[in-house]
Specification:
Length: 423
Amino acid sequence: MNNFLSQNSRNAIKKVARNYETNRCKSLAKLGLSKDEYRDKMTAKRAKIFVDFEKNLKIAKENLKARGFQVFEAVDEDSAANRIIEFLSDCNCVIKSKTNTGQEINLREVLTKNGKKLYSTDLGDFVVDLMKVEDQHYVLPALHLGSAEIARKIKEHYGDEVEAKPETLTHYLSKKIREQILQADAGITGANFFTKTGEIVLLENEGNISLVTRLPRKHLVICGIDKLVESVQDATELCQAAAIFGTGQDQPQYISVIAGPSKTADIENCLVEGAQGAQEVAIILLDNGRGEVMKSSFNEMSRCISCGACLNFCPVYHQMGKNFGGKFAGAKGIIMATKLGKYASLSKAKDGGSFNCTLCETCVFNCPMKIPLDNYIRKIREQQNQRKLQIKQNKEMIDNAKKTGNPFGQKDSSETPDKLYCC
């Protein structure tokens, strides 16, 4: 079927998942952590900011401004696009780190439509761009691609023979990425978290985000309002949780805390903004439906830290990749398809595969924030059923059950059904 990944891609994803499971177990053991107790602790830490969210967000915006950030609020994708072009009006060459919020608002399309050149600096994103394929994971975008096919593409695109080994390919492509970073006028990142006290917190492994935020003269942060946390301490602890549950590491390689534009007081103790780092830093705080999610029966989705753990053992994702869930992938993608953006709808969730979910709860057991994804999928299916948004197979089962009392239709007890249905 067209919705299924190639066998090579499925094998690559399974290999990554096996390695991830081993590494996560080792990291939890090394840190002396019980998985379930740790999830309880991190969930409680993440949840407290939402007790009086609007007040906390107002305080955060005031503190961000006081630290020198240009703070823009965007109610939707269009207003975010306008703010991006406004801030980058004098920039032609733009680099970006991996940003799921940027993907949500179609960042590449926004910039290219306005004559800007945009280059990815995350190695996985860079590979996906090079291969001209869709990313398949919002933490590990190129996990479905093998070394041999990447080496072939390098030969085709650059004319260079590179050994088809992860280490060799990484070193080769990292040099290509660095060349683009050094040419940039502006850098764009997301934010893993922003704090009530006015800081941006970013985690990474490659070191590209540090360069994106410091080398160009402008740094733009695009961030959902739901990424707010109480403090830098809470943010760093949640960054560790994202590393453990996202890739199986006990810590990310880097955690950056940004508290405004670069500055110095080395001459006459006079504080001047604009030194070796970014001279201007702006943050776009995107709603795009998040405020309504917080007030709805889906409010626990706001705790998501975008670690990708919900995908790593999902049996449907392993077969279909982002054909299950769409832009965000997996159960999260199904849910967000009904909530975020001007095109959010139950129909979009159906197209993303809401009825493909097996409700096995693997995503729930692996979520460090204990988000009840399976219950949310059930709610969405109930709403879809009320609006007669059923898939063909379900309609057949329902009709058969009404006519014969059997989802397979009128069958002899010894007869094998010619069609089998799941769930």
